[in-house]
Amino acid sequence: MSTTTQNSEKTRPTDNLMDGTGLARRLVQQTTEAAADLLRRTGTAPCLATVLVGEDPASVTYVRMKQNRCAGAGIRSRHVALPASVSTAELVDAVAVLSADPDVHGILLQHPVGPHIDERAAFEAIAPEKDVDGVTMHSFAAMGFGLPGFVSCTPGGIMRLLDAYDVDLAGKHAVVVGRSAILGKPVGMLLLGQDATVTYCHSRTSDLPALVREADVVVAAVGRPRLIAGTDVKPGAVVVDAGYNPGNVGDVDFETARERASLITPVPGGVGPMTIAVLLEQTVTAATRQLGLPVGG
Amino acid sequence: MSTTTQNSEKTRPTDNLMDGTGLARRLVQQTTEAAADLLRRTGTAPCLATVLVGEDPASVTYVRMKQNRCAGAGIRSRHVALPASVSTAELVDAVAVLSADPDVHGILLQHPVGPHIDERAAFEAIAPEKDVDGVTMHSFAAMGFGLPGFVSCTPGGIMRLLDAYDVDLAGKHAVVVGRSAILGKPVGMLLLGQDATVTYCHSRTSDLPALVREADVVVAAVGRPRLIAGTDVKPGAVVVDAGYNPGNVGDVDFETARERASLITPVPGGVGPMTIAVLLEQTVTAATRQLGLPVGG
């Protein structure tokens, strides 16, 4: 490769950015149309139940934002607010009531729910067909086995982005940094389902930079600012940054990484907007199925 | 390292072998004692239900072997034989009956069950607390999330072997070759749960030898004779061969690999005996729990 080519690559300002904001907008628009169509055909608008434990300001803000986005897409919200002192049994009961309620099509339990609560038990009270946030064991196994089910929203958003930019994953080495139950682990399973060779890295990984240097696709999902040095990105690699840290900083050193990556998500405006878009889409899908209509029909 | 040392390493014939036969024998002995103890305390012997569809000779042999091993450990068997023509709904019903039967503590559905049957639906009819073969989505997710549950038997046997030989997995790079739902995928999750850095390789992986050369731990679980060249094993690596191919040949070129590995499983006598031992142990554990006694108490 000539110096000229390298320079021209280095100076292109935006043409290797994956535009999550734009893709999410289109997905939300399709979802809004699907919700309207469902209402027209069945007389019922999709309904997402949100469950909030306590009054943590960040959680309150997140839930309100999700409700507002639902409203914008023609999705009704049902809100269940529980005191911070709620017991696991009470929370499980509240979620189970929503699971059994035919007027509720999707359930989102805002987490974390507090250290005294068995969060897993609460998640498992969500009926799989209403698990539009993709947090249940059933949904995880479905992602692992390539079976029908709802995906965790951020992993689902990442896969949508890769697909929208025609990233062929088959045989590629995808390095996932992070192993959380709702992000790292499921996105690795989804990448594996697309025939990528998948490496899970985490806090105990002994030489993270060496593994990143091998990656054709890097998915950073750990929440540590600039953990991944841009100079470790292999030239031509695809970089997906699902980290979101104070000061709009991702898990990847963006400015350096973008000079080497063939495609890279900005922070913000990359993965973030896709998460809520997938939540809305899955809520309408859940409603469509529960109302007995074919999805996409 | 001196030539003398190398020679002495090369000529040691068996001291780097992981003795699955011996470890399995001890595990079965403990399980037999636990089953006898349970019978003494509750008047009930553990019971494993085996479900066989059709009369495939290999499947018939496997089921009979498992029943014999159960009998040897003081575990009762209940056998359900269904014709090859059974429908998915009929098979699901038969499994559901066993799931609801308090006299049955564990359920093993011999697979494959035939191409016309939805095997996943049949597996999912197994109650999680009776899934002693570790095949349900619930069990997979439990392995993925590090939650209580039954493990898939071969992955569980592999982890027992690694533990018995004091292999510290934290920070080690474990390369899993194969991604089946009952072997590759769950063993990767269990290794990740022990803080290994885990890479899943498979048929679409573009440069398997290069990844094997990096591995501190190799788990071969694909069923292709000598797919992994011994010369690709990193000196000092731990090699677990879960492959079992005609002619007692594993997935690893054993003779060459054993000269380089710090520990290696033979085929046969490595992983194989552990699988049935874990099945028996989990059956007694399931019975103990269902009879209301503390496990290991």
What's the gyration radius of chain A in Å? Answer: 20 Å
Average pLDDT rating of chain A: 94
Helix content of chain A: 40-55%
CATH topology of the largest domain in chain A: Rossmann fold
DSSP strand count of chain A: 8
- Chain pair with largest interface: A-B, 31 and 31 residues
How would you sum up the global shape of chain A? globular
The H-and-E topology of chain A, N to C, reads as HHEHEHEHHHEHEHEEHEH
* Spatial order of strands in the largest sheet of chain A: 5-4-6-7-8
Keywords (chains A, B): Amino-acid biosynthesis, Histidine biosynthesis, Hydrolase, Methionine biosynthesis, Multifunctional enzyme, NADP, One-carbon metabolism, Oxidoreductase, Purine biosynthesis
GO molecular function, one term (chains A, B): methylenetetrahydrofolate dehydrogenase (NADP+) activity
Pfam families (chains A, B): THF_DHG_CYH (PF00763), THF_DHG_CYH_C (PF02882)
Pathway (chains A, B): One-carbon metabolism; tetrahydrofolate interconversion
Give descriptors for this structure.
homodimer, 297 residues, alpha/beta, Rossmann fold, 5-stranded parallel sheet, 3-stranded parallel sheet, EC 3.5.4.9 (chains A, B), methenyltetrahydrofolate cyclohydrolase activity (chains A, B)
Topology:
2 copies of one chain form a homodimer.
Chain A lengths: L2 H9 L8 H23 L4 E7 L3 H16 L3 E7 L5 H13 L5 E4 L9 H6 L12 H9 L7 H12 L8 E5 L6 H10 L3 E5 L6 H7 L2 E4 L17 E4 L12 H7 L2 E2 L6 H20 L7
Parallel strand pairs in A: 1-2, 1-3, 4-5, 4-6, 6-7, 7-8
